[in-house]
Amino acid sequence: MSLTELEKEVENLDSSDFEAFTKWIDAYAAKRWDAQFEQDVAAGKLDKLGKKADLAFESGQCTEL
Questions:
Q1: Highest taxon of the source (predicted)?
Q2: What CA–CA distance (Å, rounded) separates 39 from 63?
Q3: What ranges in 1-65 are assigned the alpha helix state H?
Q4: In this structure, how many other beta carbons lie within 10 angstroms of the beta carbon of residue 37?
Q5: What pLDDT sits at residue 63?
Q6: Region of residue 64 (left: phi > 0; alpha: psi -120 to 50; beta: else)
Q7: With the C-alpha atoms ordered 43, 48, 53, 54, is the resulting torsion angle positive or negative?
Q8: pLDDT tens digits for range 3-60
Q9: Among 3, 36, 52, 56, which residue has the least CB neighbours within 10 Å?
C-alpha cells in the first residue's frame, strides 16, 4: 500500500475508528522515538550534551525549578 492509498483510507475512517487510529499511531510513534533515543544514548550521541549540562551545573549556571 502506498502512502497516498493509506492517506485516503485514513480520510475515510469514521469518527470512532479515527480516534482509535490516532491513539494507536501516537503510541507507536512514541515507541519508535523511545527506541531511537535508546540507540542514540547507547551510541554515545548524547555524551557531548551531557558533559555540557554537567559543566553548567557544576559552574553554578543552573537554578532549581
A1: Bacteria
A2: 30
A3: 3-11, 15-42, 47-58
A4: 12
A5: 84
A6: beta
A7: positive
A8: 999 999 999 999 999 999 999 999 999 999 999 999 999 999 999 999 999 999 999 9
A9: 3
